[in-house]
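Please produce the structure of this protein holding N,N,N-trimethyl-histidine.
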Amino acid sequence: MTDSSQRYQFFDQHPEIADFRADILQGLSSSEPYISPKYFYDEAGSRLFEDICNSEEYYPTRTEVSIIRDCIDDIVEFLGKDCLLIEPGSGDSYKVRLLLDALRPIAYLPIDISKRYLQDEAQKLAAEFTWLNVHAICADFTGKLELPYHVKSTNKVAFFPGSTIGNFAPEQAVKVLEEIRMMVGNGGGLLIGVDLQKDAAILNAAYNDKSGYTAEFNKNLLVRINRELGANFDVEQFQHYAFYNEEQHRIEMHLISMQEQQVVIDDQDFLFKKDQSILTEYSHKYSVEKFQQLTEQAGFKSVKTWTDKEQLFSVHYLISS
Ligand code: AVJ
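Below is the modeled complex.
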């Protein structure tokens, strides 16, 4: 079967579309202003994120890719042939391409909230892998996860790369993992990429690249708010600030107001004092052991962990117990 139309299916679960305006107004009204990191990824932001991933300092992407490449035979052995491979937050399905030829899943089920983008990327994938069944699901992976059809005896495996789990505070991360566990069911698996704790200098450099991509990525939030909500942020008067919080084991990204300034959105005024921060992202870092403990809380059992030689990044295979 080479006609991709026969192998491609689309299931719309009609995710609730977040209200960008309401979310931003709520976050900025807080006594500690914040903007959700999920809003980084408009067109410009997605392009900047790619630039970050290709930068010298940002090691996670290339390290995870090389772990998967180097350990592919081992990974395939653990996941088993003929699985149903499900990817929450699949985006451009770039990393799954590293698995497909070796794994040969029965079907690949990308889950993404962005309908048009998901349809485009899933269809491209079905055309590229001329044997692959692609069952795309439009849904929000931070909400309830449900498969569009019942599968009995097949082994279900979720793929969650990129240390996306690090964006969530540990308690929230457990909830996300629990949702994934319920989706894959008893005996189902999870292949997940997690950034590791390491020397603060390496972490600080990764979120403060010399080319300034991360700074621009961070400030692009304000550009987006200006454009989409008709706000009047003076973007030049905010500074990118990212640092490793050693006690909390997380990178924190902020936008710092360089002077006192007032911003108007709709009929609401927001006053930013000099040096006041807007929190834009946490990126939690784990030790292998700490992450395994976290996944145990969500009902997973650690089966195997792969890392690179320098222990920068980890890829875990877990089974729902
Ligand atoms: C996509 C959430 C894994 O936390 O490293 C990169 C996003 N932010 N540089 C991360 C990000 C700043 C990235 N994640």
